[in-house]
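FAQ: What does a multi-protein file look like?

Like this. Sequence, then tokens, then the next protein.
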Amino acid sequence: MTTLSVIVPAYRCARMLDRCLLGLLASDVERGSWQLIVVDDGSNDETATVARNRGAEVVTITDGPRGPAFARNRGVELATGDIVVFVDADVVVSPTTLSQFAQLFRSSVEISAAFGSYDSAPDDPGFVSQYRNLQHHWIHHRDPGPASTFWAGCGAVRRNAFHGVHGFDADRYPRPQIEDIDLGYRLTDAGHRIVLDPRIQGTHLKRWTLHSMLRADLYDRAIPWMQLLLDRQATFSNGPLNLRRSEQLLTALVGLATLCAMIGLLLRTPAWLLVSGACLIVVVTANARLLLWLSRVRSPVFALCAVPLRLLFYFISGGGAVAVLLRSRRRSTRAHVRPLGNAPGTATR
């Protein structure tokens, strides 16, 4: 029999957490057959009270916030289920989510971890929130099946596999970043199989602004992800999701378009601007399937307004990669340059 322990890391999110827990409690899996753990990461609001009122076991981190990686690890310490299901406090799962995870692991013993997707009906009506979540939905539905990464917003892992790779790296990721992607890589390195099943879905409650989206894409995604790839010596891997070579090429084209536009404006030479425009047309054309899908599920105007946000995504991704590469090169140069007084065979006074 497959047993589940559901872990929800939470920090100052009482209202969203209540909706998250109500979604879990509406599951088609009988409540007495699965464990619910909420890890309160040092909140100063009613987060812990809400969790207790909904019947959850509550773990309180007194010196928090320590970040979701640390919080999830603490939750797993109390987990008794064979399968640990991670659900973010701003995600409302569907009534079938838990049974889908249970069935997946029960029917495929070779699977060690699995994750789903946001649905196509994000809660916040703002344009940036709608775009951000629909993009996530599109990417996860575009690349179902075997995966080398993991998503902890709505994901599950066998408890013994989780312990085998020592859980989330809370020291490296003390705030919400790519701690789940890192976990997925380490599970893959250890020979575990991960699958992406976009039929398992949840509604995202988070409100995104343009500033919060760009900041997250740069500081919480592009920079730490590129650093992780460098550390793994896998910068040019042809992985799924945002690491396909086609995506790398499009990122490079946006960088080239930016460079050509700057040269054209500086030299006042239209030819450079034409090259820049041509690069951007190629990028937009390559995203035609996404834009057509956005047009169908929202509107043509929505899809048109999404174009600059998609270009900004590539620009931010490229900028983050360049920043990490330059920083790594500077560190490498400093490591190879020694003061003369410390050189081997040099006398010092």
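And here is the next protein:
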Amino acid sequence: MSEYEPVIGLEIHAELLTQSKMFCGCSVVDPTTSEPNTAVCEICTGMPGTLPAINQRAVEFAVRVGLALHCEINETSVFARKNYFYPDLPKGYQISMYELPLACNGWLDIRTEKGEKRIRIRRVHLEEDTGKLTHCDGYSLVDYNRSGVPLLEIVSEPDMRSMQEVKSFSHAIRSFLRYLEVNSGDMEKGVMRFEANVSVRPVGSDRLGTRTEIKNLNSFRAMVHAIDFEVDRQSKILSTDGEVVQETLGWDKANGVTVSQRGKEEAHDYRYFPEPDLPPLHVDPAWTQQIRSQLPELPDAKAARFVEKYGLTPYASDVLVVERAVADFFEEAVSAAADVPADKIANWVTSDLFGLLNEAGIEITESKVSPRALSEVVAMVEAGDINATSAKAVLADTFDSGKTPADIVAAKGLAQLNDTEAIGTLVQQVLQENPEQVDLYLGGKVNLSQWFFGQVMQATRGRANPAVVRSCLEVALQQLQKTHHADS
């Protein structure tokens, strides 16, 4: 066991799914497909004499997130200028929030190996995104399409003590934002990014160590590797009586190390002051209540309901509710197959259907397998109309062709063979055609019974009911043993 424990807090930056930017009327465009610098105007490129105006839809989305995270929504919040100079920040400052954020003092419960844990949310506030730099040999190109896009920042308290907690919290936040339909969660496009505040301290201590901040982590993988490296680096420094230096770090993916970007950074370095071109933002409590009334059922509540209503395990429920579309698919499938246990439906969704989706690289909403089609497959298995092997083939065929399971079963003759007399005849045929294996079995190689089983299943092209085959085979082999003992 390590003598040091990590103390980790996360800052999540999420672009909001508004149609226009935070302080101007420019369209929000896909940065990966749009021509550079085509969704820009005088305001989002910081031209002198221009004035910003607040995007009401962005405020609504931020309030929605704040409420979902059990935050206090401040009736009055203030935009501030955060001053720093960088090529992708055309004004030389970013409009953000500082002393009076939109929401604060919230929490999110996560599931850990030790049970539920509450991670406190310090603040949720609005700001504008920067442009995007592309570095070339000896020079850089800047695209201002992203400049001014509404950006939501969620700041946690340093409550996480393991990478398992970090992963659980970050995945839960992404799921929440997607459920609330305020962010796509598509990290490959840069619409959601993490910054990690990391320190370590002796196990059992309640004092916070010197922290470092790792900037711009644009994937879960990068976040995990960067934090792991930084925890190990700081632990080694302290174990040799060294001193951790407070600094801002970047993640060098190619070399797998954190690298220093700048030294100690405090709020006063940004020279925050209230944005003179924007009045204080007042949020009507009645509007807040209206937004609250429109919140969807969120992942944690949905998971708890799945456990109580459908008798699922907490693990299965957590898997199903990560994506809202998957949870909806599951419930529709359960409704379509009233006589099939819900846990059977859940197992087919999270195993076989997920496997097909992953292999094809598509979302469940793009699948040709409808909830009713999946429930039909599971119902046929439960009724003994087809066996599990045939069911997997039917599901795969439906996934590829979109045909109904019933049509596929009929066309391919996959209906399960349950006739005891017919299966018994096949068992006798297999035994008669393999006298050498029968002699070995009677001589003590009892594991050949599995080989006989396989031969019968092969003879029926997998259509025979396995339970009936085993029963008939067991009776036939016992009879052979009795005859063999009587003859000897």
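Q: Is there any per-entry metadata?
A: Some entries carry free-text notes. For the entry above: The first helix runs from residue 56 to 68.
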